[in-house]
């Protein structure tokens, strides 16, 4: 069975991971890529249910291509220390849908120490939001410093919470060096196309849809 490229998305509760997926998948689908989603949560499958309802409503993806996992423990464990539950879900998804070009794996709400096991994810995105304050990027942490792409979401709230986007930009550069980061407002789709471009270029290497074959 071939390995379908996998994107891991981590970040705190409320940072906008699920909404990013709801906005990102249609962009990928419009470009011809077949995408699946696995959403982790500790107790419920609420996020997966919402993502499925959103993506099914506009016929973006079939319902069985959005899978919810209730991990029952620390969110880090299911995506880093013991990703066996996710790997089993991926195997079943690829078996049922050999046409897949990409699988997006959402971690349960976590903190700045989160990373994904390389066995699970080929590309790691970490998401924070402006409402957490403009000090967030300079706090560093494995998630912020080591991810392939840092996404700073909810820029529309900056003026309402007293956050300075220039400070966040400066500190993101200091924390990440030359690694990329983006500002987004997923609710209005601001920056989502750019997230898709990073994934297509840096993970899929600009391969056309279906290039991996069944």
Tally of separate helices: 8
The whole-angstrom Rg is 16 Å
> What portion of the residues fall into strands of 2 or more residues?
15-25%
**Distance between the first and last residues' Cα:** 9 Å
The topology string of helices and strands comes to EHEHEHHEEHEHHEH
| Structural class computed from helices and strand pairing | alpha/beta
**Topology, number of strands:** 7
**Mean model confidence by pLDDT:** 94
Strand order of the largest sheet: 3-2-4-1-5-6-7
Helix content: 25-40%
Poorly predicted segments: none
Sheet with the most strands, sense and barrel status: 7 strands, parallel
- Principal-axis shape equals globular
Structure notes:
With 214 residues, the protein is an alpha/beta fold. The protein is 36% helix and 17% strand. The protein has helices at 17-30, 46-57, 75-81, 84-96, 142-146, 158-161, 165-176, 192-202, and strands at 6-10, 35-41, 66-70, 102-106, 123-129, 149-153, 181-183. It has a 7-stranded parallel beta sheet, sandwiched between helices. α1 (17-30) runs parallel beside α2 and α1 (17-30) crosses α8 (192-202). The mean pLDDT is 94.
């Amino acid at each position: 069975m071939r390995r379908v490229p996998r994107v891991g998305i981590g970040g705190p509760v409320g940072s906008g991971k699920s909404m990013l997926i709801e906005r990102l998948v249609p962009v990928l689908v419009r470009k011809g890529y077949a995408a699946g989603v696995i959403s982790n949560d500790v107790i419920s499958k609420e996020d997966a249910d919402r993502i499925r309802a959103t993506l099914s409503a506009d016929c973006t993806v079939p319902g069985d291509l959005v899978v919810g996992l209730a991990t029952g423990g620390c969110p880090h464990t299911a995506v880093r220390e013991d990703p066996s539950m996710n790997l089993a879900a991926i195997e079943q998804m690829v078996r049922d849908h050999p046409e897949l070009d990409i699988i997006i794996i959402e971690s349960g709400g976590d903190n700045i120490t989160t990373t994904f096991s390389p066995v699970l994810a080929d590309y790691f995105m970490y998401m924070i939001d402006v409402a957490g304050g403009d000090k967030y990027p300079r706090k560093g942490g494995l998630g912020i410093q080591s991810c392939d792409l840092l996404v700073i979401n909810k820029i529309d709230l900056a003026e309402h919470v007293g956050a300075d986007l220039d400070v966040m930009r400066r500190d993101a550069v200091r924390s990440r060096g030359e690694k990329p980061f983006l500002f987004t407002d997923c609710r209005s789709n601001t920056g989502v196309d750019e997230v898709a471009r990073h994934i297509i270029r840096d993970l899929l290497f600009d391969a056309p849809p279906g290039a991996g074959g069944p």
